[in-house]
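Bench notes, afternoon.
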Amino acid sequence: MQQSQEILVVTPTLGRSPWLEQTVDSVAQLMNAGSNLRHLLVTPSPELNRLKAAFPDQEVIVEVPGKTGLYGAINTAADSSDDWDWLTYVNDDDILRPDFGRVVEAAANDLADVIYGRVSYIDAEGQVLGAFPVESRPRRLASLMAAGIPPFTQQGTLVRRTCFDQLGGFDSQYPLAADFDFWVRAVRAGISFRYLPVETGSFRLRKGQLSADQGRVRSEIETIIATHLPRQGRLARARVQACFRLRHLPEILSRRMRTGHWRTAGSIGREEP
């Protein structure tokens, strides 16, 4: 029988998110259902005691000087413990879904280094806005990334520790797109990916979130592409983008009908953080 795999779930937080309790609860429910998870909150030192008091059963650690920000906090959590085999992270306004437990089960017997699934968009109140367009065929990941398309998102995506260590964790010079950089470097390194057709998490769209600055996100993505991937011609890039959107037209149309916007940035909810 395959030995049980230890799963580290990391939540970086400034401690001010009104949705943090929902995030913590979503992980706790999976733990109560038998999934072998360890959940770490990483926060600036002024928030440590307050968060420990608010969540007495929750592990809370302090971010390390020089490793601040979202991705620095994830690297801090990864470095803080030796007893984990897989890592995922969930932002302090997002949630993991019950079917993430199926990804955890798959990790015990899978040879892949990265396992990912479907993710839904939700608004500030938790209402589903639609599905994130996720590429189900890992062989297409490289061409999509070269065309500037994030082919999946991190909620409920598991990364094997050997992969994380091989790539040196997240590059925090990209404060908004270090996850895209990580996946690009993983593809370039020949890391193996597997898609599971289950809903692993929900990505909350709201005012004030970091990814709302789409101009800055796109700038980081283009820098990452220029650094790590072969340059695509304009027509080749447009063809890849068009094919991806056609394959995911039902999800795009569904989100358009629910939000009134074609683009994700336009679907951000009304609530302030």
